[in-house]
Amino acid sequence: MTEVKVKSEILPDADPMATLLRVEDLRVEFHTRDGIAKAVNGASFSVDNGETLAIVGESGSGKSVTSQAIMGILESPPAKVAGGRVLFRNVDLLTLSKERARRVRGNHVAMVFQDALSALNPVWTVGFQLSELFRQHRGMSKKDAMKRSLELLDLVKIPAAAQRLREYPHQFSGGMRQRVMIAMALALDPDLLIADEPTTALDVTVQAQIMRLLKEIQLERNMGLILITHDLGVVADVADKISVMYAGRIVEQAPVLDTFATPAHPYTKALLKSIPRLDTKGQRLEIIKGLPPVLTDLPPGCNFAPRCAYAQEICTRELPLLATVAADRAAACHFSSEVIRDV
Amino acid sequence: MSDANLQVAAATAPKTQKQRGLWSDAFHDLRKRPTVIISSFVILVILLIAFFPGLFNFHDQNVKYCDLGLTRGAPSGQHWFGFDEFGCDYYAQAIYGAGPSIQLAVIVVTVTIIIGGFMGVLAGFYGGWVDAIFSRVVDVFNSIPFLLGAVMLLTMFRDVQVPLIGGRLQAIIPAAITLIIFGWTSTMRLIRASVIESRGLDYVQAARSLGASDMRIMFRHILPNAMAPVVSLIPLSIASMISVEATLSFIGLGVRAPEITWGMMISSGAPYFTSGFPRLLIVPSAFLIATVLSFVLLGDAIRDALDPKLR
Q1: Which A-chain residues 83-122 have CB contacts (< 8 A) with chain B?
Q2: Which residues partner with A244 through β-bridges?
Q3: Hey, is the C-beta of A213 within 8 angstroms of any chain B C-beta?
Q4: Closest approach of A298 to chain B, Cα-based (Å)
Q5: Could you report the average pLDDT of every consecutive run of 10 residues in chain B (311 residues)?
Q6: What pTM, to 2 d.p., does this model score?
Q7: B127 Rama class: left (phi>0) / alpha (psi -120 to 50) / beta
């Protein structure tokens, strides 16, 4: 097996001046026994170097599927990319040959998983798993690869790194394990890092440390970062832009501060209200009533209408499209101008 | 942190930092159990007998030298188990009879694991039509009764000489091929099932997201994790291959003459059981039972150690 050891040979057509990642009208379907589940229905967004995009949504909104589609690691069957383009520096990753797409993963686009314990192979030491990457993708000798692995563990601030290289994933604490996961994702100097709920499995203090680490490394390397989460608290600290997903569609897209100050979609608004806050202590937390729609049987019109406080007759009939509501901001709601006004 | 705390931390650090993987943990668990110690010892002795029978030939008996005048002669200090019906030394026969069947079992198990493992990984990993084809082939093999199939094949080819090899291999190979043909399916199924189980796990996805090729994912990531059930199966399948070989030898179809096996000795000793020479049956049976039992006990213990849920 001949591996390309030089990174620039992987995507010769890439245009270094183009946007780092532009996803256009991405559609993903799951062919299940109950019919076709439309998990992603035309998602579009972009991330550039040094930028952080947060994709927010509840479980089943299609955010993880979107990230897997970008990575090209959807389990297919049952999943199938039904349409759209994933442009990495103007090269469509969805049309690459299997072999080329494989080399893009890790080298250009890498991913941090939610649960680092299950995402690290239990039978190999951490040092082995890290150095394997360098040996396979960069053709390094065993010794050099170990040296690079050690530097990486230092980079993600794991104490006693030399000793910990010889340990197995289960010997690490949750936070340390997530650091190892980040180190693995960073090993081949990717231009874009996708973090799929990187802190969900961790406790709050460790969450903050991990997010700070991710942010630091991103700034240092001028990397693009896509942060997938349902935790709006995390988003506020880290992200530049936010895309809110609901039932496989992006319903609002805006700079993060604008979203928090004046949400333009009723769903975003409801999400923000359901965060516990210090100044509402002792009061009942607002919740979003009802359940997200069944993806195999999406109703016509706005998918959020049954749960929406602003819903009118038109909402059950006509699907609102993502439209500009203010500078840099877009929302998919018939009444977004009202929503934005009424805080 | 105070100085006292630091000292405590320093004192306890080496203990908590002991490295323990799945395998070393299992080994640690195993070496304390008496059944494991005893059965490992028996297996070790049997393996030594099988591969270096000369070491145990204390009185320099010539296995091939038989004196019809000594037919079924009684045991003595020189001839611990006496003589068989052709006047051959029975102890030497028992010692030299270990080799062929154990070597056959080792060959059969190794080859079935390689073939079954490879097919199982491919079928489990790719699923779809690859899996459909492999699984149907397995179904066809499984629909043939094992003993009937083996007896039939060995009878069909009983006069065929395998070219280019001689000596003991020539005696072993026909039986080995037959047992492999009917043996690989269970390994394949086992590996396939555990590959399917690990295929969707996060670390496989993570490896894929870091650009690992299918081959790497299969053999570096999935297979080591899918090996545990197979490893515990190794002693058990060696045991079952030894007993199947004994069965085939009993009806004269296993390892070919002039090699001696315990199965052949049981076969020729059984008629004299009630006519005053029970040792002609008891000696080879005892060797066979001790061997099979040791492998079974060790296999069970390994399985328990690798998967504590089964205990």
Answers
A1: 102-107, 110-111, 113, 115, 118-122
A2: A56, A252
A3: no
A4: 28
A5: 45 46 74 86 91 79 73 74 78 86 91 92 89 92 88 84 74 88 89 86 87 87 82 88 90 83 88 84 90 91 73 51
A6: 0.76
A7: left
Residues in A touching B216 (Cβ below 8 Å): 136
Output DSSP code: residue B308.
G
From the list A40, A85, A52, A22, the residue with the least C-alpha distance to A228 is A52
Task: Order across the sheet with A21-32: list the strands.
Answer: A35-47, A21-32, A79-88, A91-92
- Residue A51 distance to chain B (closest CA, Å): 21
Is B206 touching A (CB cutoff 8 A)? yes
CA distances from B289 to B95, B98, B107, B266, B269 (A): 15, 12, 20, 12, 16
Using a CB-CB cut-off of 8 Å, the residues of chain B touching A120 are 203, 206
What's the rounded Cα separation, in Å, for the pair A197 and A178?
11
Name the residue of chain B whose CA is nearest to A124's CA: B21
CA B114/CA B100 separation, integer angstroms? 21
Q: What is the pLDDT of residues A321-341, one digit of tens each?
A: 888 888 888 888 888 878 877
Where do we find the tokens 């204390």?
A: B58
